[in-house]
Amino acid sequence: MATLATLRLQVELALAGRVSTPFRYRHGEVVETVSAGIPEIDVLAGGLPRGGLTEICGPACSGRTTLLLSALASRTADAEVCAVIDGCDGFDPYSAEAAGVDLKRILWVRCQNLNQALRATDLLIKGGGFGFIALDLSDIAPATLRHVPLNAWFRFRRAVEHTPTILAVLEQESNAKTCASLVLQLRTESARWCSTLATHNPKVSEYPFARLLDGFVVHAELLCSRILFSPARRLPGAPKLTDDLASKRAAGSSAQYFQTKTISLQTEGAAVFRRQRHG
Predict the structure, then answer these.
(1) Does residue 17 lie in a domain region?
(2) Do the domain assignments include residue 253?
């Protein structure tokens, strides 16, 4: 017994200043959460955890951007400053503004490669002052992301821990492993289409392909959550749930559905079609 106690003390001394409680059970912690901007995601995951790493995974057109813009709109509406580290320079400010994001509260970091994106994320987390930081690696090949060292994800987790910052990573598949406090998997279930011709037009049947994308139905699945919710109280900033949504959470469902909506923006006389969350 004395030997085990000695080893424990040596480990604690070796990790002093880096890991405060190395032997504490860390599977679940009661943390503050905030709304993701989509009620179905709030029901599924309980919101986005502060001081933790959240992974949003899924293939192209799976609803990742919709969830990101909804979260940004929710945070900027609460006067929080947010940052978007754009791994492949694919962020669209027009879509963000149409989704309700206050662009004056967004720091947009446009990166040329993966290394720049990881370094920028590290600097912003350590700098502090951001309520929400999104690392968008959606357009980077999964094979490339698999080569990111696991200690990079551990460094992000340790840097954001015990801070009011929400760190969200968007990618095609989960890579952070045990470093993630929350992992959401998204996929498209079905698409909705609308006709470009008026229904009273007598020639509408002659143009069966004259349709525009109206939106998607997205399936969201909770793959992993290390967040504990206190049944006795609602943490400050946690999403408010209706009785119906609360009953769904109580049922213990690990999946929810939400919808996206295509809107048309008039930009310099040209119609530009963007996608945002269906309200």
Answers:
(1) no
(2) yes
How far, CA to CA in Å, does 32 sit from each of 80, 100, 124, 241?
15, 24, 21, 15
Domain total of the chain: 1
Cα separation, 87 vs 233, in Å, equals 38
**Percent of the chain scoring above 70 in pLDDT:** 68
The domain that contains 181 carries what CATH number?
3.40.50.300
Angle at which helix 114-127 crosses helix 150-160, to 10 degrees, equals: 20
DSSP 86-100: ETTS---HHHHHHTT
CA 112 to chain centre: 22
Q: Which token pair is 227?
A: 């967040």
Is the Cβ–Cβ distance between 83 and 126 less than 8 Å?
A: no
Give per-residue pLDDT as tens, 84-113.
Answer: 999 988 899 998 999 899 999 999 999 989
174: nearest Cα among 44, 43, 58, 20: 58
